[in-house]
Amino acid sequence: MVAVDVETIASDKNRVKPYIGTEVQDGTRNEHDDSLTRIFARLDSRGDVELRGCIPVPYEDRTVTQYFNIFFLWFCMSTNPLPITFGMVGTLSFGLSLRDCALVILFFTLVSTVPVAYMCTWGPRTGMRQLVQARFSFGKYFVSILILLNLATLTGFCVVDSVIGGQALSAVTDGRTINATVGIVIIAVLSLLISFCGFKILHIYEKFAWIPAVISIVIATGCGGKHLSAQVEVPPTTAAQVLSFGGLVASFILPWAALASDFSTYMHPKAPSVQIALYTYVGLALPTILLMILGAAIGGAVPNVPSWTAGYESNSASGILAAMLHPAGGFGQFVTVILAFSILGNLAATMYSITLNFQMLLPYLFRIPRVIFSIVITAIVIGVAIEAAKSFFVNLENFLGMIGYWSAAFIGIVCVEHIYFRGLNFDSYTEEEYAWNDTKKLPPGIAAIAAGVLCFCLVIPGMSQTWFTGPIAETTGDIGFEVALVLSAMLYVPFRILEQRVAGK
Questions:
Q1: Which runs of consecutive H residues, i.e. helices, occur in 362-391?
Q2: CA 447 to chain CA mean position, Å
Q3: Subcellular location, in the record's words (predicted)?
Q4: d(CA 236, CA 248)
Q5: Could you give the count of Cα atoms lying within 13 Å of 362 in the half-sphere of its Cβ?
Q6: What contacts 214, CB < 8 A, 6 or more positions away?
Q7: 404 band by pLDDT with thresholds 50, 70 and 90
């Protein structure tokens, strides 16, 4: 097993490559291990593979000044069929009209993107991945609970991405040449290749991959646009529908906050925070709003367009997009393939963050290079995605319904810690060397866990899911994420004050 000595790396300000090593049980090394070490070190030195993983990036290694790249990364991650699929849920499953659906998407996206953009600015200032920085609220060990939740969330998004891409490839030939299972494997393996390489290659890919994605979506809209006006008649929208669908939209955006700084840690420490936040905000919100609304329009017309209905029944959302492109013949099939591959921008970036989260799960896992986890998560995603594809929209709604709650509580707690208790002072995270990995310098995390858990006493009654509707949600609709955000922040203040008095840190 390849291993990395975290303490050695952390105590040196140079790049990680000299310390990539291997160990065996008797403490000896062999020639094969040394060869593997040299290969990894060479790839790291060239920037082809990132081996640092979750170790905070030293000040002098934060050298990236092409700040606009962060816009391309967020824009590319959101320019694919994923937000289109989410938008379809509003009209197909929640029964909203296109106008009301569009308004909900607009408002909740604009609001939900704010914490993601803000937390992305923390990466250049601290050099820390988002959940490493969260140790300063949740402690070294309690943060593992967050990491497990984030792993489940990110893996869920990877599964959704893989199903959408795989079904799009299947829809090209109606499943005759490539079925959904084979398509899922192809998409997942291609994403593995990108995420395996790390920060540099990921940013280069995301800088250009959005271009064919935008062209393909425009072509698909042009081919099927004449049917978008055929919206089904729906009853007047209720407040409960608005809040429930709004919660789903927020659940699409808020989980990015738990990995926002993962993509900006190599940027220069003096990077202008307003600029980074603006690039992140526009890059994430703009395509999400436009494509979700497009998805809502498509979903509202599906019951009135027979070919779209058939595509939906065979390959879900991807089948609808393929049906929209069917009039273009062979060219339409080619564009469908491009749409399938456009999902790689989201999937590869998500896999990249998953590899970092695996390292943070347990202290020992810091010793295993990030690239190893790329292979592990790909295998997991393929297995789960093949099964999830059988009832895609049902599984999608169940998945989305849960992830927004914990993400909102996380945001409330870490933002209060940074704004109220640390006074917006980034030096407080780095002024004590290696504090991020020292239990003596980190808080116990009891206050954060207590606030996060206790807020669910009101979150659960405010939940509205296909499998459970709380007593409050029966009247109001789903208000779970709003309650989680506000109540976790409010509870954290007195709990943290008490923790500081008792633990002294």
A1: 370-388
A2: 26
A3: Membrane
A4: 20
A5: 3
A6: 79
A7: confident
User: Over the chain, what is the mean pLDDT?
Assistant: 84
C-alpha span between 359 and 350 (Å, rounded): 15
Tracing tokens 């509870």 back to the chain, one arrives at: 491
Which tens digit of pLDDT belongs to each residue from 246-258? 988 998 999 999 9
Q: Say which DSSP state 420 is in.
A: I
> H/E/C letters for each residue in 490-503?
HHHHHHHHHHHHHH
3-state secondary structure of 438: coil
Q: How far apart are CA 109 and CA 112, in angstroms?
A: 5
454-457, Cβ contacts within 8 angstroms, sequence gap of 24 or more: 454/487, 454/491, 455/409, 455/412, 455/483, 455/484, 455/487, 455/488, 455/491, 456/405, 456/409, 456/484
Q: How confident is the model over 417-441, as pLDDT tens digits?
A: 999 999 999 999 988 878 898 888 9
Q: 298 and 320 in contact (C-beta within 8 Å)?
A: yes
Q: What is the pLDDT of residues 304-339, one digit of tens each?
A: 999 999 988 887 888 888 899 988 888 999 999 999
Q: Which residues of 417-448 are buried (b: 16+ CB within 10 A; e: fewer)?
A: bbeebeeeebebbbeeeebbbeeeebbbbbbb
Question: What SS3 class is residue 2?
Answer: strand
- CA separation for the pair 338, 142 (Å, rounded): 42
471 in helix, strand or coil?
coil
Dihedral in degrees, nearest 10, Cα atoms 219, 225, 226, 229: 180
Single pTM value for the model = 0.84
**Non-local CB neighbours of 384 within 8 Å, separated by 6+ positions:** 155, 159
Residue 242: partners with Cβ closer than 8 Å, 6 or more residues away: 96, 100, 104, 477
The letter for the amino acid at 178 is I
Four-residue CA torsion sign, 20, 23, 27, 32 = negative
What is the reported pLDDT for 396?
64
Mean pLDDT of 155-182: 83
Q: How far apart are the C-alpha atoms of 318 and 389, rounded to whole Å?
A: 11
Q: Following DSSP, what letter does each residue of 312-362 receive, concatenated?
A: HHHHHHHHHHHHHHGGGHHHHHHHHHHHHHHTHHHHHHHHHHHHHHHHHHS
Nearest to 133 by CA among 277, 274, 258, 269: 258
Q: What DSSP assignment string belongs to 3-29?
A: EE-HHHHHT--S-SGGGEEE--TTS--
| Closest to 458 (Cα-Cα) out of 479, 438, 439 | 479
Whether 377 and 359 have beta carbons less than 8 Å apart is answered as no
d(CA 101, CA 95): 9
